[in-house]
Write a structure and sequence with these properties.
- By secondary structure, the chain is an alpha/beta fold.
- Helix content is 31%, strand content 26%.
- The chain is built from 16 helices and 26 strands.
- The strands form five sheets. The protein has a 13-stranded mixed sheet. A five-stranded parallel sheet has the order 4-3-5-6-7, with helices on both faces.
- Helix 11 links the parallel strand 12 and strand 13.
- The longest helix has 17 residues.
- 46% of the residues are buried.
Length: 533
């Protein structure tokens, strides 16, 4: 059968109605209560003119309303659009316009004011749904543009039952990337492919895939009542994939407004956490610092596993976690917005990341021909089976990232390089692009370079990753200054970039050189730049 995400959630909710589905800031909602909350939200969305196929941007931090918004949208076959709330106004404008969002759900006053200033530049937005009190600037801007304002709290007065709707495995879910290869791109998933790939066919911890909704519901009923804390914000792909995975299992999802290691370590005891999902060393390092500080003070007995995805998770941080609790199961997931969960890395004695053999992962050369196991040839790691439809509104990048071979098989090739051993194990060698992964946030070097080049004193600049103990990598810039220009300070360069880029994209290290080296063809010499850093 073809699976739909809303049908999956409703089937699980009917199977385990009294089990706690969501814990947030001291509030506990059962599956029945969360499904009802999502139903009321769905009715509010429908009454606000939102229907099947409409794109709705969720400009939100973690909250119950955020979860209800995601579920409410898929109930009515609308398409949630994840929004990085750390983006600058120009970056937000790009997301709203590129995604063709017809509505935005927003909460924080500062986010409302930012949205108010963008409404003129985003003509497709016709509805804004506000959680909490509406800011005066947003109200004025909405009235000037004839944009409909809706109070999210009005959902409380609506019934939880929704009008009958025929859902499909072809319904869309769009997940915006972190901008690994340029501006963020909207990855278009069919619900059925989303189920089979990111959600591992309904059976992430076992063999075989679930055949139908009845089997998913029965498995959820048999799944032990475990508490999974998602430390990452729901705007990130890793968090969204985990949210749907744990709901599909009938588990309890624990969310927090913001990442706070002290609160998380306390919650291990108070919420009897089973698993914590983090994003690399950016979360892992402060978390293990707090675990070490409070070792012996907090009961860690319930904690079975810590899982990371989306960023570098160093062996040193993992070893420290095991020193605190030796029986922890540590899992380093490999995946992307474009592929979902590809499995878990293991680390060999030389520190190499290794992926066990999988029928859905192969190594190909530049002609897309599969590289035979045991070859010394370095190639591109390619995923096959349940590949996304492509990038929303970008046929060229879709063709490059999701090519179709001569035999009709579609691939997902993101630029990850590797080699394949004789037993089919793939050794991960790194990303072949200029992507910088800083604490799970993806930064594209050319975007930062463009901002640097806009400074009147900067003659040339290259941007590369630099090792960072906490974040895995930090953004570093190597730049030259025009001879006649006053030399800017590092602080001045950072302040200039801050007017154009999100905070995590600002260069933390700036190296001044007489001349930025380029190849004879004028291409960037990133290898040289890294030596300067």
């Amino acid at each position: 059968m073809q699976f739909n995400l809303a049908d999956i959630f409703e089937s699980v909710a009917a199977s385990v109605p009294d089990r706690v589905a969501l814990t947030y800031e001291g509030t506990h909602l059962t599956y029945a209560a969360l499904d009802a909350e999502a139903g009321r939200t769905a009715n509010l969305l429908s009454q606000s003119g939102i229907g099947a196929g409409d794109h709705v941007a969720l400009f939100l931090k973690n909250s119950i309303e955020h979860v209800a918004g995601i579920l409410g949208l898929i109930k009515i076959r609308a398409v949630p659009i994840n929004v990085n709330y750390r983006y600058t106004p120009s970056e937000l404008e790009y997301i709203f316009t590129n995604s063709d969002s017809s509505a935005v759900v927003v909460e924080l006053p500062e986010h409302q004011r930012t949205l108010a200033a963008l409404l003129d530049a985003c003509p497709a937005i016709r509805t804004v749904i506000v959680i909490g009190e509406t800011d005066a600037e947003l109200r004025a801007a909405a009235e000037a543009r004839s944009v409909r304002l809706v109070d999210f709290a009005d959902a409380r007065t609506l019934p939880s039952d929704t009008a009958p709707v025929t859902r499909s495995g072809d319904d869309r879910y769009i997940l915006y990337t972190g901008g690994t290869t340029g501006y963020p791109k909207g990855v278009m998933w069919r619900h059925d492919d989303f189920f089979h790939k990111p959600l591992s066919g309904g059976n992430p911890y076992g063999e075989g895939k679930r055949k139908d909704l009845a089997e998913v519901a029965a498995a959820a009923k048999e799944f032990p009542e475990m508490a999974f804390l998602i430390a990452a914000p729901l705007m990130h792909g890793a968090a969204l994939y985990s949210l749907f995975t744990f709901f599909m299992l009938g588990a309890r999802v624990v969310l927090m407004r913001d990442f706070d290691p002290k609160t998380i370590v306390s919650a291990i005891e108070t919420e009897r956490l089973t698993t914590i999902l983090i994003v690399g060393d950016g979360m892992g390092l402060p978390l293990v610092d707090e675990m070490e500080r409070r070792q012996g003070e907090v009961d860690l007995t319930s904690l079975f596993s810590i899982t990371s995805g989306g960023a570098l998770w160093s062996v040193g941080v993992r070893d420290r976690m095991l020193a605190v609790k030796p029986d922890l199961l540590l899992r380093d997931n490999f995946g992307a917005s474009e592929t979902g969960n590809d499995g878990a890395f293991t680390v060999d004695a030389d520190g190499n990341l290794r992926m066990p053999p999988s029928p859905n992962m192969i190594l190909v050369d530049e002609r897309l021909d599969e590289i035979a196991p045991g070859s010394d040839e370095v190639g591109y790691i390619a995923r096959i089976g349940n590949v996304p439809l492509g990038y929303y509104g970008d046929e060229d990048k879709t063709a490059r990232t999701f090519p179709t071979r001569a035999d009709g098989v579609r691939l997902a090739i993101l630029g990850d390089m590797g080699r394949v051993e004789s037993d089919g194990t793939i050794v991960f060698l790194g990303r072949g692009s200029g992507c910088i992964n800083t604490g799970g946030e993806k930064v594209f070097a050319e975007e930062v370079e463009a901002a640097l080049h806009a400074h009147p004193a900067v003659a040339d600049a290259l941007v590369v990753p630099a090792p960072d103990e906490r974040m895995g990598q930090r953004v570093a810039a190597v730049l030259s200054v025009y001879p006649e220009a006053p030399a800017p300070s590092t602080e001045e360069i950072q302040q200039h970039c801050r007017t154009m880029l999100a905070g995590y994209k600002i260069p933390r290290t700036v190296v001044f050189v007489d001349e930025v080296r380029r190849t004879p063809a004028g291409k960037a010499d990133y290898k040289w730049a890294k030596t300067q850093v």
